[in-house]
Amino acid sequence: MALTPSSPDERRSVGFGLLGYGFMGRAHSNALRTIPYIFWPSTGCPELVGIAGRTESSVREAATRYGYASWSTDWRDLVSDERVDVFDNVGPDAEHVEPTLAAIGHGKHVVCEKPLASNAVDAFRLYDAAANAGVKNLVCFNYRFFPAVRLAWEMLQGGELGELHQARFRYSQEWRTDPATELPSPTGVLDIICSHAIDQARFLCGEIASVSAEITSIAPARTYRGAPAQADDTVSILARLDSGLVATIDASLVSPGRKNQLAWEINGSKGSIAWDLEHPNVLQVYRRDAGRTAGFAEVIVTEADHPLVAPWWPSAHVLGWEHAHINMLAHFASAVADGTPVEPYGATFLDGLRVAQVAEAARESAATGRRIEVEEVPAR
Ligand SMILES: NC(=O)c1ccc[n+]([C@@H]2O[C@H](COP(=O)([O-])OP(=O)(O)OC[C@H]3O[C@@H](n4cnc5c(N)ncnc54)[C@H](O)[C@@H]3O)[C@@H](O)[C@H]2O)c1
């Protein structure tokens, strides 16, 4: 008996065009290739239409390696291609604005890596353009898509912690600790990692009203490719939220031993929760009403009834860093195919704008020594 040919995949395809084939180009390509068979059945089946980057030999190789149907050394070829439904910008921070605006101009749905922009004016231009065009938009604050973080969000939405007393958010890495090193990127700690911590604070606890901040550098004169680079190595923010809650948000690229520690703790009248990216599947939960058995419990968030675990393996099989990117892009592909909202789970360009406004207020506070109100979102 001969083999029977398999049936074609009849789900709606969503054509992706990627700008960039570096670290994030790899992470997003991995996600786009994985989604069709892990998220089954689902609508919004990503199709790898094209990839663009600067260097011909590298972009050609990336297209073959990841399975893109086409490639170009000019991102304009991607944003104008009719097979592309989603323009996914995984280029460096400095390349987020112009190509993404051009894609919106061609009516494409847009994904942009964080930070959406390095200043609030550019972030507003992107938010405004996407809103006017009515296209779906996502900023890659991927940590929202860890199962433990989503469970924390659900607990907070349900009021399980009662009245919030205090919250602390921290993102620490070590790779800039040697002051003699030439930097691998021109941006500093606020854009590189503090943007994630600010988004986690807003996602879990609410909007930030004002900030007081200090920024330090261990070597202010460091360079990137021979040109002066943003020197900020640490930032410490004391934030007051619209709700009145006071939160600390800090980040450092000069913390020896801290490999990639995004961690937070939130305390309320009924209990506390804490999470640490270096132990990503564990949510620490303390409930005051547990009586004499009260104590921090390590809740391993791997049960298959969790919406971000369900598409993966049977209960109790751990997920890692790449799964959050895959969960995030699967959510976006479905939003495009089904016309469902990206928010509240996914970060939209409005969230990217709010993070840029908080970062800008932190910079102003550090420069002036004053507490700074975070700007309102300008009228459109
Ligand atoms: N969400 C996350 O977890 C996360 C992690 C790391 C980086 N990022 C963000 O992702 C983005 C990309 O970072 P990365 O680490 O992948 O960088 P990378 O340096 O590894 O890759 C950048 C890519 O952009 C291309 N590129 C550079 N300059 C260009 C130009 N002028 N025109 C067109 N293409 C150009 C490069 O060839 C490369 O393919 C950045 O915005 C960064 O902040 C996000």
What does it look like?
The protein has 380 residues and is α/β, with parallel strands linked by helices. Strands 16-15-14-13-7-12-11-8-17 form a nine-stranded mixed beta sheet. It has a six-stranded parallel beta sheet with strand order 3-2-1-4-5-6. Strands 9-10 form a two-stranded antiparallel ribbon. Bound molecules: nicotinamide-adenine-dinucleotide (NAD). The site of nicotinamide-adenine-dinucleotide has 17 residues, from α1.
The small-molecule ligands in this entry are: nicotinamide-adenine-dinucleotide
On the 0-100 scale, what is the average pLDDT?
Answer: 96
CATH fold title of the largest domain: Dihydrodipicolinate Reductase, domain 2
What is the CATH-assigned architecture of the largest domain?
A: 2-Layer Sandwich
The chain-level structural class is: alpha/beta
What oligomeric state is this? single chain
**Percent range for β-strand residues:** 15-25%
Q: How many structural units, i.e. domains?
A: 2
How many strands? 17
Shape: globular
**CATH homologous superfamily of the largest domain, by name?**
Dihydrodipicolinate Reductase, domain 2
Could you name the key traits of this structure?
6-stranded parallel beta sheet; 9-stranded mixed beta sheet; 2 domains; alpha/beta; 380 residues; Dihydrodipicolinate Reductase, domain 2; globular; binds nicotinamide-adenine-dinucleotide; Rossmann fold; 24% strand
Secondary-structure blueprint:
Layout: E1 13-19, H1 23-38, E2 45-52, H2 56-66, E3 70-72, H3 75-79, E4 86-89, H4 97-105, E5 109-112, H5 120-133, E6 137-139, H6 147-157, E7 164-172, H7 189-205, E8 208-216, E9 223-224, E10 227-228, E11 234-241, E12 246-252, E13 261-268, E14 271-276, E15 282-287, E16 297-300, H8 321-338, H9 349-368, E17 372-373
Parallel strand pairs: 1-2, 1-4, 2-3, 4-5, 5-6, 7-12
Antiparallel strand pairs: 7-13, 8-11, 8-17, 9-10, 11-12, 13-14, 14-15, 15-16
This protein binds nicotinamide-adenine-dinucleotide.
